[in-house]
Amino acid sequence: MTPPRARTWGRRGHTPIIRVRGRSRRRTSVAALCCYKPGEKSRLIHRPRNHLLLKGARKSFSWQDYRDLLVRAHIQLGGPIVVVWDNLNTHLAAGLKRYGAEHDWLTTIRLPAYAPDLNPVEAVWSLVRRATANTAFDTPDDLDRKLRRELRRIQLRPHLIDGCLTATGLAINPPTPP
């Protein structure tokens, strides 16, 4: 519930101050895929998840959650998927690797050790953070609503998703027929 900070306007000599309630007992995680296919509109597929901050409870996505996101993307896109993973420890989990090896519609490629500048999803998070900066949320539900609204706004604007790929300097080159 601690909001990201950004520049804002205020009267000279009077720094704007917003009081924020204490931390919540809930944590929100979001996983997202930027989907690109030559000749089609770019798509953003995301899945938010709430976690209760209890002793011993998981505070982030598990490899099963990422697997479920990939299955959902496969169903929505209706074809094989090539996933470019960063090196998040959950992406490297043995169960996820095993799942990828068992399904021929899924191909995984790893990014170098620390390369957020090559990951288009990092630009999506930048857009979301920019939209939520300097906002004090009253309840975790307000945060969830704003988060879903911003992700939906990005989904409805394929040019923003294309811009996220362009920011990486990478390009999608379709294979040329022999």
Care to describe what's here?
The N and C termini lie far apart (54 Å). Strand 3, helix 2 (94-102) and strand 4 form a beta-alpha-beta unit. The protein is globular. It has 178 residues and is an alpha+beta fold. The longest helix is centred in the C-terminal third of the chain and has 16 residues, at 140-155. The model has no long low-confidence stretch (mean pLDDT 84). The chain has a two-stranded antiparallel ribbon with strand order 1-2. The protein has a two-stranded parallel sheet with strand order 3-4. The chain contains five helices and four strands. This is Transposase. Pfam families: DDE_3 (PF13358). Residues 4-143 form the Tc1-like transposase DDE domain. InterPro entries: RNaseH_sf (IPR036397), Tc1-like_DDE_dom (IPR038717). It comes from Streptomyces caledonius.
